[in-house]
Known about the structure:
A hairpin with a 2-residue loop joins strand 9 and strand 10 (163-164). Helix 7 (167-175) packs antiparallel against helix 8 (179-186). It contains 10 helices and 16 strands. With 314 residues, it is an alpha/beta fold. The strands form 4 sheets. A 6-stranded parallel β-sheet has the order 1-4-3-2-5-8. Strands 11-12-15-14-13-16 form a 6-stranded antiparallel barrel. Strands 6-7 form a two-stranded antiparallel ribbon. It has 2 domains: 2-160, HUPs (Rossmann fold); 189-313, Elongation Factor Tu (Ef-tu), domain 3, CATH 2.40.30.30.
Amino acid sequence: MRTIRLDYPHTLILDELPDTVAAIGFFDGIHKGHQKVIETAVHEAKSKNMKSAVITFHPHPSIILKKDVQHVQYITPLREKQEILQDLGVDRLYIITFNKELSSLEPQAFIDHFIINLNIKSLVAGFDFSYGHKGKGNMQTIHEHSRGLFNYTVIDQMQSENQKISSTRIRELLKSGQIEKANELLGRPLVVRGIVKEGDKRGREIGYPTANLEVDSEVLLPKIGIYAVKVRVKNDVYEGMASLGYNPTFTANRDEPIIEVNIFDYNTELYGEELALEWHCYIREEIKFDSAEELIKQIEEDEKRIRNYFYADS
């Protein structure tokens, strides 16, 4: 998959671009609803012997449009989004820089510049996609703005339990610890990547060595607590348990939560390695224990429960 970053105005030359079927949207999470949009574009492109593309935006529009929003955390940061889109068979990824100038574009100017002038012959979008200044362009006005120069397909709302599948809903599920339901709507386990950094080695002292992960501040993390996870180390996958929290038994007044991962049946040093954590099940809340002995007893119970969880799921 080729990734192309675009500002307004972009400098790509129309005659040098392939005939393309594109899916357009922000696509944070690339959940089942998003996948329907993207897979529709990929399938149509293959059937017409064209290139498939995804057109998305960065950063999140709320950073530009809402004065009270300074920082957004993403279910799928850009790198994760790129990897998922590649797995879905997308040929090209256009990332449009969302800034004040872009937000001021009238709907027709947006379509002319970022659809027609990218040689998009067919556009696929969700029913609620909007474009142009103040979102005045939408899938009801697309016929007018297309000027007959491209076809378009509107994907209806997808639901689970009579509710719309949306990034907002998935965020709420993650923040409330409903990781299994969030994964169901995503169509895959939530993945968080991080680099192993040196910690205080207290886990090793109590018989449960942990890898401390340094995670980008743009990553949306689930609810504080203990989780059943799978850990991807290079090309191998291991089961384990992760603590996301403040480690209150040993540490007071920590400002930011940390991720500590105990990988089952794994003893190799990992400092500097990148790990990919798949979050599978919320086990319990974080607890402050009165002694290391109480903590060890609880960790033993957590390990047993998590091993049984993965055994039953296998």
